[in-house]
Each structure stands twice: as C-alpha cells, then as structure tokens.
Amino acid sequence: MDAHIATPDQAAGWRLEHSYAGLPKLFHAAVAPTLVRAPRLVIFNRRLAESLGLDADALNAGAAIFSGNELPPGSAPIAQAYAGHQYGNFTTLGDGRAILLGEQITALGARFDIQLKGAGPTPFSRRGDGRAALGPMLREYIISEAMHALGIPTTRSLAVVATGEEVYRQEVMQGAVLTRVAASHIRVGTFEWAAAAGDEAAVRALTDYTLRRHFPALAEGENPPLALLSAVIERQAALIAQWMCVGFVHGVMNTDNMALSGDTIDYGPCAFMDAYDPATVFSSIDRHGRYAFGKQPGIAQWNLTRLAETLLAVLHPEEERAVALAEEALAGFKDRFEHHWLAGMRRKLGLFAEEAGDAALIESLLAWMRNAKADFTNTFASLAHDTATDEAWQKDADFSAWHARWQARLGRQSQASADSAQLRRASNPAVTPRNHLVEVALAAAEHGDLRVMESLLEVLAAPYDHAQHAPEFRSSAPAGGGAYQTYCGT
Ligand code: AMP
Ligand code: MG
Predict the structure, then answer these.
(1) Contact criterion met (CB below 8 Å) for 16 and 103
(2) Per-residue pLDDT reduced to its tens digit, 147-204
(3) What separation in Å is there between the alpha carbon of 117 and the centre of ligand 2?
(4) In angstroms, what is the span from residue 256 Cα to ligand 2's centroid?
(5) Is 256 labeled as catalytic in the residue annotation?
(6) What one-character DSSP code corresponds to residue 32?
(7) For ligand 1, is residue 140 a contact (CB within 6 Å)?
(8) Whose CA is nearest to atom 13 of ligand 1?
(9) CA distance 384 to 152
(10) pLDDT by residue (tens digit) across 289-314?
(11) Which of 9, 348, 395, 440 is most deeply buried (CB count within 10 A of its CB)?
C-alpha cells in the first residue's frame, strides 16, 4: 500500500490551477492573505475535502492554510474584480475580503475555486477591513451545507478558522476565515464590470471563459453569447424554483450575488421561512421588501436582464437585432421558472403526471397556508407522512376541503399510493436550518462549544430522513421570539 510515497507538496492532495488569472488584467489583482495572530481550526468538512481529492487527515490540522497564514503548494492568490447592482443601484465592488487561492482539480477533472473569505484587505476593500466574524462564517457553513444536502446547487464550506483577532462591527466580534468552495465565482456583476469598462474584448473573453468552464458544449455553436445567456436563464429558473420549494429567502439578491454557474452564493442575510408568507423578509436593511420570498423569481429576471445588457455588443453586430435576441431569451424565464416550480410542487404533493388543475390545487394550498400562518416545512412534511389531518390546525374546514381535493387527485393517478408517499418523503424535507436552531448552535460555538452545531449539522445532512429526526429539530420558531432579523456587513 505504501509503494507510492508522495512528495511533501502532494501530501495533502493539492492540485491547483489558475485559469481565471488568464483572463485580461482588469478582472483580477494579485494579493496575498494577511497573516492572522492565532489561527485555530473551528470546523472542517472532511467529506468535502475528500471529494476534492484532498487528504483530510493531512489537512485536519490545517489552521495555517485555512487562515491564509500558509499558502498551499501551487497557489497564486488573487482578488477578483466585479461590479453589481445593489438594491437596484449600480456600483463597483470586487473581492473586498475574499482571496482566491486557486482552482482545485479533482480526480475526475472537475475544477473548484478555493477561496478564503475574510482573508484581509485587497485592492477592492474600499473602507472595509477585509475581515469576517466567526458567527456569520459559521452561519454560512451551516446553511450552505444544509442547502447542499437538500439537493440545491450551492457553493460549499470547507473550513472555518478563528483568527484569534477581533473584528469591529456593531460590537466586538471574534475574527474568522471561511474557506468557500465554488464551481466558480463568476457573477452577473463580473459581466457588468467588463461592460462598464466599455471593454468589448473583455466581455468576449469573459463570455468565452464562462462557456468553456460551465457550458463547454455551447462554446462552439453559432451564437455562443446567446447560448450562454439562455443557459444561465435556464439554470437560474431551476435554482430559484428550488428555493421557492423549500422556503429559502436569499435576502440579498444583488447582481454581484448571482453566479453564472447557477449555484446559490452569498449567505449573508438569508434564512428559511417558518410561517408561510410571500412577503417574508429577514434582512434588517431590506426595508422595502425588494428581496422578499415571493419576489425572488421577479428579481432573478431583473438580474438576468442586467446580464443580457452587458452582452448586447457581442450578441449581434446590429443593436436592434441584439436587443430582440436578448428580449426573446429573457421572455423565456417566466415559463421556465413556472415549469420548474410546478414540477417541484407536484413532487411535494406526490403527483407523478400533470393535470390541468394542478397549479390551482397548489395555489389553493398556499393560500390556505398563508391565511393560517402555517409552517412551510412542517405543512409539507406532514403531507409527506399522511399525518396531515392529525393536528388541531389541520381540522380547519378550509384545510379539510383542500385535503379532500388533494386526495381525489391522488386517487386519479395510477401509481401506487406507497410510491406517491415515497415521492413526497423524498421531496419534502423533515428539517431545514431553522433560525432559532442556527442561533442556538452559533451562540454555543462562539463560546467554544461546538457540540450543538455538530449535532445540528448531522441532522441537516439528512434532511429527507423522516424517521430519524428528533422533534426539537422540527418545531417552528418558539412563540414570543419576535421577528427574526439578519444582518449584512458581516
Ligand atoms: P456582500 O454584502 O457580501 O455581497 O458584499 C458586498 C461587497 O462588500 C463586496 O464587494 C465585498 O467584498 C465587500 N465587503 C463586505 N464586507 C467587507 C469587509 N469586511 N471588508 C472589505 N470589503 C467587504
Ligand atoms: Mg456578495
């Protein structure tokens, strides 16, 4: 077994490449992480490390690497430039506190960005300190890993290191660095950056790069920029539909927080909804509800329109034709979203085939849930268990009427009822990272006790295992807790 003795450089399995640095200079700036005082590994994702081809045992003491104090072999750190529309207003941004170490190539040849978030100032830091706080980085770790386990495309979290330094927000907090793993960090805002520079060659280079990295089959077609736009529209339609099927509120859908890969990115003020209400907003700064739960599909289309605008010059040499092509592609978003959403909701109700009345059946359940302030996750989970008439609130006459309609619909399908129940269990999570559970885990972790977070992570890793979960992971927010708020500037 020990016939092959790895050289020290290969010992941990690092295999870093730097394709992004091959883009024109305006897209990146070389910058090294700033040393931290006393790095301590708080949490490490062994399974993710292994899937990346990294040796988890060799890295388990990786505080030095995951804090940025030591660079892994082959790294060439850069910060990425981008712009973005924040709450509808255009602004230039860039990685102000994130540093890309390189792209890890897995055994199967897949490419993943390895990025340190909170690694110190960069040329794009503006007035920020380049740092991150422990609580918010652990929060990103929990929720991104929960999203992954739910089957929703997302960036992942490899490690969180406490820096032994203080960071100053509304209060003094413990500093931390999160290692984020992403299919790429190409954002709608990256295209906006190139277009705002008026650099058509840069837009072309980024278009070509994005196609080769994420949609290689489309790179050689007749109109690759149009193929890119359509493919990104399709992925976003599918992604937002998945959010809407689990009650996820992203919270800050600025164009710099929308990834071309179709992964969920930027876990700042996000949260899962308890009581169903499309107007649900958690972010303390989203005063007008721009990014409310029910607004997410429309905002995605707004963001995609900003992307399309950056591509006009490369879509067609005649502007009028370019606009027509972009508009046609964008007009498809609504249908594609509805297609994915309806398919997802059918699965949640255990329906295999389509019937014309399905959308109305679903809408009528949602209308009831909204009126009854029914818990989103638990209502669907109880439908999955066939326990939907066991609880007091479910004796409600309107719910009973809906339930009878649903049962009749189930009765019209040829599949066995056990198969429908199986489909429902596989499509309705028993657990989601509920705000109060996350808060309790973070509070303990900030005081050095990781056990609560670890047991929460274990439960969230198997969200569709309806047999396993203890009731404390399933209850709605405790009454009297007040409205839950999340914060940006973390
Ligand atoms: P976000 O709200 O995480 O999407 O960040 C918006 C922008 O602010 C990005 O350009 C970030 O890099 C930047 N930013 C956020 N926090 C900091 C910080 N502590 N120091 C420097 N830049 C930051
Ligand atoms: Mg961001």
Answers:
(1) yes
(2) 999 999 999 999 999 999 999 998 999 999 999 999 999 999 999 999 999 999 999 9
(3) 11
(4) 6
(5) yes
(6) P
(7) no
(8) 96
(9) 19
(10) 999 999 999 999 999 999 999 999 99
(11) 348
